[in-house]
Structures are given as C-alpha cells and as structure tokens.
Amino acid sequence: MGRDDWYRRESWNAEDEEAFRARNRRSRGDDSKAQYLQIQAATLYATQKSDLLEPALRLAEECLREYPNANISRAMALDLAGCCCQRLGRLED
Fold first, then answer.
1. Which pLDDT belongs to residue 3?
2. Is the pLDDT of residue 2 over 70?
3. Is 0.85 topped by the overall pTM?
4. Rounded to an integer, what distance in angstroms lies between the CA atom of residue 93 and that of residue 84?
5. What are the C-alpha distances in Å from 58 to residues 1, 2, 52, 90?
C-alpha cells in the first residue's frame, strides 16, 4: 500500500484502525475527514469479506453521525450503510 493509500486498507484490525484514525485526525476539514471515512468503509465493503462488513458499517455510520453536513460523503455513506445492512441480513436497520 502506497503512502497515498492510507484510507484504502483492505484489512481491518486494531493496528489498521489505529493507523487510519491517527492519519484521519490530521486531515484538513470535516469534508476531508468524512470522505476518508466513507472511502475506507467502501474499500472494506468491496473486499467481499463477511468479517469486514461490520467495520465498514461502523465507519459509514460514523461518517453520517460525525459529519452530517458533508453532503457528497453523506449520500455515499447512506448507500453503503444500506448495502452493508442488506448483506448482513439486517433489513430492518
């Protein structure tokens, strides 16, 4: 993974999360932080690994909760959260 791919991790463990969050805290502005959360969530979802669906959902929900005014990221995060819930069989969510 290159230096510019820090928000496109295809694994998610405690070390991955810690490194992602440390880097995201240094991002400029709420729009950037929201975008990186959404991209990381989408990357985890795209791996098609069932054990990464919950982390992807949590990141999408965090984007929605913490950055409600980031319009583009919000729309994508809403779609992603719905896709995660569908694959998890949690249609009521």
1. 60
2. no
3. yes
4. 10
5. 23, 24, 10, 14
pLDDT the model gives residue 70: 85
Read off the amino acid at residue 71.
N
Token pair belonging to 34: 């929201």
Whole-Å CA distances, 53 to 26, 27, 42, 68 = 26, 25, 10, 22
Instruction: Read off the tokens for 13.
Output: 């463990």
The three-state secondary structure class of 5 is helix
Q: Token pair of 59, please?
A: 């990141």
Burial 62-71 (b: 16+ CB within 10 A, else e): bbbeebeebe
- The residue type at 62: E
Is residue 65 within 8 A of residue 81, CB to CB? The reply is no
Can you tell me whether residue 57 is helix, strand or coil? helix
Contact, 63 vs 74, CB < 8 A?
Answer: yes
Beta-carbon contacts of 47 under 8 Å, excluding residues fewer than 6 positions away, are: 10
| Cα–Cα–Cα angle for 4, 41, 74, rounded to 5 degrees | 105
